[in-house]
């Protein structure tokens, strides 16, 4: 019998023992690479959040500052202005845990005080030294992501001597930062950061060798949805034409060890995940 693997949140347990968790993306930004400006008013954001939960999202990840390559930073005050009023209303119409995509502790504190569940930090707790302690104070699960550089310069010329080793070390160091600040072991999630300071060949290598990240012994999140990696391989310039390429990366990631997939197209990718989970888990019964 498979041992239950649980991520505890203030909105209930997330069981990833034999199921891939779907994290739906909701950008409250005017400039995100895929859907900038589409959901940055209250009505459209609420409608989208409800749609994603109905479609099968286990988590909704809300971001109020774009982290696309070469994007401009916004102040914590502006980020909170975009995020907190919408977050409060989304919490009224949804039941799933809400993740906040931010690397600023003051933004995260305001979000957690409002009722958010999960800390999703693209910097792996590096850009703001108070992030880990803030998460620990609220006993919130933390997603520690790898990035080389910062969003405004990360794609200038990313380079590695030993890609997998360096990404794993960055994640392991982030885990140490979290635990030293009081984050519980069972509240840690890792993300190798597809597209964040990586050439496309790096992204493909990480997906191909994703199993090696299981050695860290934490749930793995992968975010490939609509990213330029898909354009690079299947030559689709329009982000909305990258669904099938995204589906392929999601299925590959699940088979190689991903526990959470962060996606825009929740309804479609939910079906991909359910089918891939069936192959991954039910296929083991004959052994």
UniProtKB/TrEMBL annotation:
Q: Name one GO biological process term.
A: folic acid biosynthetic process
Task: Cite the InterPro entries for this sequence.
Answer: DHP_synth-like (IPR045031), DHP_synth_dom (IPR006390), Dihydropteroate_synth-like_sf (IPR011005), Pterin-binding_dom (IPR000489)
Q: State the source organism's domain of life.
A: Bacteria
- Domain (Pterin-binding) spans 20-274
Reaction it catalyzes: (7,8-dihydropterin-6-yl)methyl diphosphate + 4-aminobenzoate = 7,8-dihydropteroate + diphosphate
Q: Which PANTHER family match?
A: FOLATE SYNTHESIS PROTEINS, FOLIC ACID SYNTHESIS PROTEIN FOL1
Describe its function.
Catalyzes the condensation of para-aminobenzoate (pABA) with 6-hydroxymethyl-7,8-dihydropterin diphosphate (DHPt-PP) to form 7,8-dihydropteroate (H2Pte), the immediate precursor of folate derivatives.
In Swiss-Prot or TrEMBL terms, this protein is called Dihydropteroate synthase
- Read off the lineage from the record: Bacteria, Bacillati, Bacillota, Clostridia, Halanaerobiales
